[in-house]
Amino acid sequence: MKHSDDVMVLGKRSEIFEKLQRDILRLEKFNPAQNAGLDAGLEPMKEAFPEGRFPVGAVHEFLSARIEDAAATGGFIGGLLASLLRSSGAALWISSSRTLFPPALKALGIQPERVVFLDLKKEKDVLWAMDEALKCAALAAVVGELREISFTESRRLQLAVENSRVTGFILRHNTHKPTTTACVSRWKITALPSKTVDDLPGIGFPRWQVDLLRMRNGKPGTWNIQWRDGAFVPDEPVPLVFQDQQQNAG
Asked: Whose CA is closest to 208, among 36, 44, 59?
């Protein structure tokens, strides 16, 4: 009888814990049903995401310390945009010193007319335009290239998307010592040498090392992935290393 009672108690604790997790996600405006539309091949990362799904209707922060990292990050964000724009909507890319080459988006399956580029002179104007754009529910996503953003400014952006359900991406340049923000996640994307296809000469598929440094209600980790056939594809074997495993190994 004692064993069955213990099992019953553990079962009730598990139910309570799962309910608390759902309540926390609901209070933080995370709705799993609204995340079902993002299908970019992020299956290897799903354990890192709340409810196993990439959070849309939220603001994500990407750090780039070097120009080449910014280019790699732009490619990775482009892959996410390809999925967000697959059904409908448009995206707005705002910057004062754009690092992305627009025609490159076509290689990711994005039609040029689906992304509007807004080039401004001052970074403070980029932040203002991004804040206003994230309030427009007609957009699928907004990307803003910035050097610095305060916690208060990032919180204002996050509050905007909680109402509009637009997905925001902040691409921060030259961030050697990043400040704290209210974004739901923080990423670092690094380019990796592409692999040749069937030993043929030429440039292979884009490859990245993806470091998820922080994910609200999720789990940080590191993966090597590539873009192939319109989706993110894990390298073989998949190098899945979560942050707590990295700390234990050290």
From this structure: 44
